[in-house]
Amino acid sequence: MNETGIDTRLVYGFLDAGKTSYIQDCIQNDYFYKYGKTLILCFEQGEETYDEDALAAKNAAVVYHDGAEDIGAFCLRCIESYRPDRVYVEMNAMTDGLPERFPDCMRVTYAVTWIDWATLKLYYVNFRQMLSRMIAASQQVIFRDCPSKELLAPYSQDFRLMNQRASYLRRDPMGYHEKAFDLFLPFSLDDGEIAVTEERYLPLWLDAFDHPEHYEGKTLRFTAPLELRRDEDNGPLSAGRVVMICCMADLQFMAFELEDESGGNADDANGGHIGGEHGGWVTMDAKGRVGTGAYGRRILKLQPIAVRPSPPPAALILSSRPR
Predict the structure, then answer these.
(1) Hey, which residues does 41 pair with through a beta bridge?
(2) Which one, of 265, 254, 263, lies nearest residue 317 by Cα?
(3) Nearest in space to 224 (alpha carbons), one of 310, 317, 323
(4) What share of the chain is helix, strand, coil (3-state, %, to 5)?
(5) Is 243 helix (H, G, I), strand (E, B) or coil?
(6) End-to-end distance of the chain based on CA atoms, in angstroms?
(7) Which long-range contacts (CB under 8 A, 24 or more apart) does 53-56 make?
(8) Which of 30, 39, 228, 294 has the fewest Cβ atoms nearer than 10 Å?
């Protein structure tokens, strides 16, 4: 076992989303079996079953949780019995907080969520919070057996807000993989000046998250009110909106950091203090500037040109639900 823990990979998805097939394919097509044992911990059983003879040929084994044994004790018992070098976990979407119950020796290095196109709408409407938790924990999300990319377009904004850093793939019925989402921008990037209405705010924020360079030097005119907030410990002032990703328990403040012409914190703009000591609501014109955020990541910052106090909008919270 690695001194830092056993390499553990989580495979999320609702029942019959394709988790078992994915794990079997990973084991059959990698070369790690030559360098150690793989253990599959299965917390959910669907129609697809593991071919245990094929797994054995690849130095792998599967153990099923019976639903009664303490999860931490189950994992430790299996690890002590099989002494694996890596672990795949077939997750159960209905078991909340499953990874938090794993023993410390299991070091989660990767997580993927599988979603079956045939049941996407059903789970999206009825189990949205569970879906959001899986997406938020994953580095990759794969939509299985989706006939066309266009069918996923209504979900693009919502899934990207659930997890901005994940990669999203569509796998068609023939097994072909491609990028799942092309973010639709309701404005032209060729324009030097962009009017940002309430409907345009989330598409702008998402595109700027991936491509801050799209807005370098552009004038952004925010015609809908933005809320001003300052991070703890007298951190940078930011302007943005609270967005409901899944439900009222899952709110996020999606904002842009403000800076002055020197690149410092924008405490003053247009000749006065922005928003007062405790923040407030404003509309503003600002110049887009690519800067450096936390952990050295490139982000889009706003350099205020004109700031106007504003009453709060009628709806204080933006919803990410697809149209």
Answers:
(1) 63, 89
(2) 254
(3) 310
(4) 30, 35, 40
(5) strand
(6) 49
(7) 54/24, 54/28, 55/24, 55/27
(8) 294
Residues 6 or more apart in contact with residue 45 via CB below 8 angstroms = 64
CB of 260 within 8 A of CB of 303? Answer: yes
Q: Where are the alpha helices (DSSP H) in 89-215?
A: 117-126, 128-136, 156-162, 198-210
Sign for the CA dihedral angle at 151, 153, 158, 160 comes to: positive
Name the phi and psi angles at 87, rounded to 5.
-130, 130
Task: Please name the residues in contact with 114: beta carbons below 8 A apart, sequence gap of 6 or more.
Answer: 11, 12, 13, 17, 18, 19, 22, 142, 144
Whether 222 and 284 have beta carbons less than 8 Å apart is answered as yes
Distance of CA 291 to the CA centre of its chain: 22
Alpha-carbon span 219 to 303, nearest angstrom: 9
Do residues 77 and 62 make contact, with C-beta atoms less than 8 angstroms apart? no
Cβ 211 vs Cβ 218: under 8 Å: no
39, 45 contact by CB (below 8 A): no
Tokens 């709806």, residue located: 315
- For residue 6, the cross-strand partners are 106
Per-residue pLDDT of the chain (323 residues; tens, 9 = 90+): 455 799 999 999 999 999 999 999 989 877 666 678 999 999 998 888 999 999 999 999 999 999 899 999 999 999 999 999 999 999 999 988 999 999 999 999 999 999 999 999 999 999 999 999 999 999 999 999 999 999 999 998 899 889 988 999 999 998 888 889 887 789 999 999 999 999 999 999 999 998 999 999 999 999 999 999 987 666 789 999 999 876 666 788 999 999 976 566 665 444 344 554 445 899 999 999 999 987 788 999 999 999 999 999 988 888 765 44
10 beta partners = 89, 111
